[in-house]
Amino acid sequence: MAALHFKQPEVSSKAYKLIREFIYNEAGIDLGETKQMLVSSRLSKRLRYHQLDSFDQYANLLINNQGIERKIAIDLLTTNETYFFREAEHFAALKKLVLDNHPAEQKFRLWSAASSSGEEAYSIAMVLDDYFGVSGKWEIFGSDINSLVIEKAKKGLYQCLRIDAIPPNFLRNYCLKGRGEYEGFLLIDKKLKHNTHFSEINLTKPLPDVGMFDVIFLRNVLIYFDAKTKENIIRSLISKLRPKGLLFIGHSESLKSMDLPIDLIGPTTYQKR
Ligand SMILES: C[S@@+](CC[C@H](N)C(=O)[O-])C[C@H]1O[C@@H](n2cnc3c(N)ncnc32)[C@H](O)[C@@H]1O
User: Fold this and answer.
1) SS3 of 209-222
2) How far apart are CA 24 and CA 176, in angstroms?
3) Per residue in 206-264, pLDDT tens?
4) Residues with a known catalytic role
């Protein structure tokens, strides 16, 4: 039997403009001038779902919708690539710069502020559990705008892909190997999940009361924002850092030419003044 082939409709310049404005206003994501192919591949299933012929019709539906379609489009338009122990230098820096100086009586709090499906947060959880041991005086908060990745993060169940960077002792101690129908999957151990919580947060909106943190990871998300959005987000995150707290950003990202109350103390590593 021949495979069914759906021809993706083209995104007209009018529809692209509306969708580009939509995702900028909702999530701060700046698609630029030339991401028509990306929009088409991510959203064409929504045209099929609504039985629409063109992106012009879909763009109108989207901007006039006040409910679930907006959320679905945001989920589809965000890029959620992530993996365990990505940019490993930050994990070593975390130990060297922060943990060894942390007052023993205070609970150590860390925020993975664009956590995607949780691999970053659980990588840090492995480092923290290994360091703090039975005292358990640590907590990780993970958040993302995308509701689907947050659900996945809460489950902590992952396909065994791109797991080579997990140190072998962490793999043994913190990752349960799936059997039967879960063959090829790993499940994060309960003791890490107990101290790791996830919630949906849009960083471009006023932040909810999340408390104060010793460290914030904000990695591989600033690339999607323009300078103004980037600066606003960094300022609001700095307000959630304890004095001398650290902010880690992605290796290909920069905060150059922004006048912020933080100092660069290592590669893509900043400290609150
Ligand atoms: C490429 S992933 C990075 C994940 C992880 N930090 C890492 O470095 O592997 C970027 C994440 O940022 C999220 N994101 C994009 N815009 C956001 C916003 N306005 N507020 C919160 N999260 C956002 C996306 O949903 C996506 O999961």
Assistant:
1) CCCCEEEEEECCCH
2) 40
3) 999 999 999 999 999 999 999 999 999 999 999 999 999 999 999 999 999 899 999 99
4) 42, 144
Q: Judge if the beta carbon of residue 153 lies within 6 A of ligand 1.
A: no
Residue at a domain's end among 77, 98, 132: 77
Nearest to residue 115, comparing CAs of 88, 146, 89?
A: 146
Q: How many domains does the chain have?
A: 2
Whole-model pTM? 0.96
CB 214 within 8 A of CB 245: yes
Please state, in angstroms and rounded to a whole number, the distance separating the CA atoms of residues 158 and 202.
24
Residue 204 CA: nearest ligand 1 atom is 19
Q: 122-160: per-residue pLDDT in tens?
A: 999 999 999 999 888 999 999 999 999 999 999 999 999
| Residue nearest to ligand 1 atom 16, measured at CA | 27
Q: Name the residue range of residue 67's domain.
A: 13-77
Rounded to whole angstroms, how far apart are CA atoms 238 and 21?
27
Say yes or no to pLDDT of 55 above 80. yes
* Contact 120 CB / ligand 1 (< 6 Å): yes
Structural tokens at position 15: 């529809």
Residues 63 and 114 in one domain: no
Residue 27 Cβ contacting ligand 1 at under 6 Å: yes
For residue 229, the model assigns a pLDDT of 98
Assess whether the C-beta atom of 82 lies below 6 angstroms from ligand 1. Answer: yes
CA distance 97 to 94: 6
